[in-house]
Design a protein that fits this description.
The protein is mainly beta and 119 residues long. Helices cover 0% and strands 64% of the residues. It is built from no helices and eleven strands. The protein has strands spanning 2-7, 10-13, 18-26, 28-39, 46-52, 55-58, 66-71, 76-81, 90-100, 105-109, 113-118. It is elongated, with a radius of gyration of 14 Å.
């Protein structure tokens, strides 16, 4: 079994910062790509940022404001969010492609953490 546990969401004023964390644990052989998605009320879930090795990709709306990073020793991915805007308000989900100890591959998801940015 593999679990992803997120932390770091909350309420912040526009222009503020938050840092999200997501730790993978369990029967892990290797963690491949890790990423953050978000879903606002009434909207589809969208990819915010993804990290594969040292390569990162961001949705245009967060470029220059958000930074994704990872600590491979801890199987943890972070999302540093600066200059937050009300339109960043959403539930943020962590996702990871993980190879388990039985060598099977699949994508895992965290439970989601609420980020609310007030105007």
């Amino acid at each position: 079994q593999v679990q992803l546990e997120e932390s770091g969401g909350g309420l912040v004023q526009a222009g503020g910062s938050l840092r999200l964390s997501c730790a993978a644990s369990g029967s892990i052989f290797r963690v491949n790509a890790m990423g953050w998605y978000r879903q606002a009320p009434g909207e589809q879930r969208e990819l915010v940022a993804i990290i594969r090795g040292s390569f990162t990709t961001y949705v245009d709306s967060v470029k220059g404001r958000f930074t994704i990073s990872r600590d491979n020793a801890k199987n943890t991915v972070y999302l540093q969010m600066n200059s937050l805007k009300p339109e960043d308000t959403a539930v943020y989900y962590c996702s990871a492609n993980i190879q388990s100890n039985d060598y099977s591959h699949r994508d895992y998801w965290g439970q989601g953490t609420q980020v609310t940015v007030s105007a």
